Amino acid sequence: MVVFDMAGTTVNENNLVYKTLMNAINAAGFSYTLDQVLAVAAGKEKKEAIRSVLKTYKGSFDESMVFDIYEEFIGKLKLAYETEEILPQPGSVELFEKLRKAGIISVLNTGYDRVTAEAILSRLGWKAGTEFDTLVTASEVSQNRPEPDMILLAMRHHGLTDGKSVVKIGDSSIDIEEGKNAGCGLSIGITTGAHTQKQLEEAKPDAVINNLMEILTLVTKQN
To answer: Is Hydrolase a UniProt keyword of this protein (predicted)?
Structure first.
């Protein structure tokens, strides 16, 4: 089984989520840059992402501020996803097809809630059971990345008990940490999204790739 992150990994939305998150945070009276937001928020459940930004750059904050910013973010994001271009990452659909032919399960997991994730997939025209097998979101688990709960849930869904039979790939260091915490056979970073190769390498992945199709060789070797 291969577990893919969505935005920045299989979905090309030009950091739309984190630009929107930055705008929602800054609307509360801050002036953080996109690089600052990406550095500490990428890959996280979005309330936790807001907390991480405020904790890192502000220090103390009231939890009510987190929820106010989150509501602003969700409103802005809904509008952004209705109007901005969202595309599959190059090679993603082809890779899903090749994995399916090889008998390898494709799972999408994400720090989005299910409503947001399904809205993105609807824009792409992707359906579970067709382009990919299963979607697992932050809504379905009590602990989010870097905890392994989403991967473990996907494993249970498909009757897998050995994490070493699973590969995790994502564009942020927290994706790599999630894979390691789940005991995945491979935890792979990809440079198409939030974090640079240097940032990914700091999380000590098993590999860093630049294109999704590179994963095919790694996965078939691992299986």
So the answer is: yes
